[in-house]
Amino acid sequence: MKVSIITVCLNSAETIENTLNSIFAQDYPEIECVVVDGRSTDGTLRILERYRNHIHHYISEPDQGIYDAMNKGIQLSTGGLIAILNSDDIYADKNVVRRMAEFVQQNTLDAAYGDLVYINPLRPSHITRFWKAGEYRKGAFRRGWVIPHPTFFCRKEVFEKYGIYNEHFKIAADFELMLRFVEKYQIKIGYLPGVLVKMTKGGRANILRGMIRGNREILQSFGLNGVRPSPWFFILKPASKLLQLLRRPHDTTLE
Fold this sequence. Notes:
Helix content is 35%, strand content 23%.
């Protein structure tokens, strides 16, 4: 099974090379690298040009935001399995893609996910937060549970059947898409324990204004998909993040 890995970027000169190298280092032979750039004005394009022979599909043009760029990447992809690795994230080791592709195929899954760590960009060996996703249980999204989006590998046919990212949402379109796929349409999903991705920052939703808008979009996502959140949702969700700050992965190779 070919795996398409989509990387979207904009002015990512400080991080894009690490992201690309983590993709090229994978020991899985059937990888399609797709890069969607939002017309960067820093040194990003020069870096991408150096790796042009290793990038299968590449566009650089203005877009309407990160989810528009992701949707462009999905449309360019020809693999049966799709993953999104943003330009400030890296895979935890060289066999992440192989393990996920085998896991999906051996268990005839529609999608799969794993665990994630946040690292300090100035001290990459320092883990600041460990997101242990755990097994999905029906209704878990209602109770504040969320899949770590960078670890989400999904068959392309699922996107073709149930839709791509809803660009109405500027912060929580990834939440809405996974809620739609998993809770509304009940695709067959599996959890592969272990850290798959190292993430160097939390993104727009970690800024106070972004958190407020993100929570508003999450509520809209529930309504759009006919799922009612638990009354405790906005207590359980931050509580789970607090636990992530206290946990540490057992795999010492990540330290």
